[in-house]
């Protein structure tokens, strides 16, 4: 494998059956200012965090695919696993709740599932999803969650993390109060400007979280995906983007950045039909996704960047 070349994106457990993953991870080098070196093992992660998405909790009857009430038990299991792993933080990538006829009903859904989520012994984060703000306004959801903003950034263990808010119509109007269609979604220009400035201000390796997809042209994706990807690429420091919304496992690598769509928690009945993950980030930019239940595993080596986007980590 050439330095910087992405590791094959296959099940980590399947890779382990070949007996090669640990050896491969131990021999990764690092990208330094003076080039690639292979004398720095990447066996100890710089950071571990948890991820869960599309929980869709609601006190209502299931559909053929979504089992809303069972999300309580699924969240409980995920929180227990996170307790064992002691992550630096856990991030929920949107659609924590499903819709109710009234704002009071949706707040009730939120309080019920957040009582489980709040049992985490670490920081927790919320990415806005379209179902979170169907009847509720963004202000109502954020007030219930005790949060000030829907898009923001933070640092942890030498890494930078960005939470984006894709709950806008293409005309720039924010979602809320049943004022949108599910496939009319975007990150507006003002937020894109904020993103560019935020990335310019940090020299740290960066991971981005957003509910809707940014890597495809599809009803499940934001309409300004190409513009957002350009901002991420030009920063030269974004390792990966983690997304939800489509309820599938999917991966794309575009111009050196990994775009990973995570499996929904709500789909399917019973404990085996859940999904959540622990992620480890290594000093060389490798990200290991250890998926549980229906969530796929990935080993994501730092991608190859074009010369124009090669702003090195300093």
Distinct helical segment count:
7
Task: Give the CA-based shape.
Answer: globular
What ranges have pLDDT less than 50 throughout 5 or more consecutive residues? 1-41, 307-314
Strand content: 15-25%
Integer-rounded radius of gyration: 19 Å
Tell me what the CATH architecture is: 4-Layer Sandwich
Helical content (DSSP H or I, runs of 4+)? 10-25%
| Lateral strand order in the biggest sheet | 5-4-3-12-13-14
Assign the structural class, choosing from mainly alpha, mainly beta, alpha/beta, alpha+beta, or little secondary structure.
Answer: alpha/beta
Please trace the helix and strand order, writing H or E for each element.
HHEEEHEHEHEEHEHEEEEEE
Distance N to C terminus: 25 Å
CATH class: Alpha Beta
Overall average pLDDT: 87
Q: What is the strand tally?
A: 14
Full CATH superfamily name:
Metallo-dependent phosphatases
Please, how many domains?
1
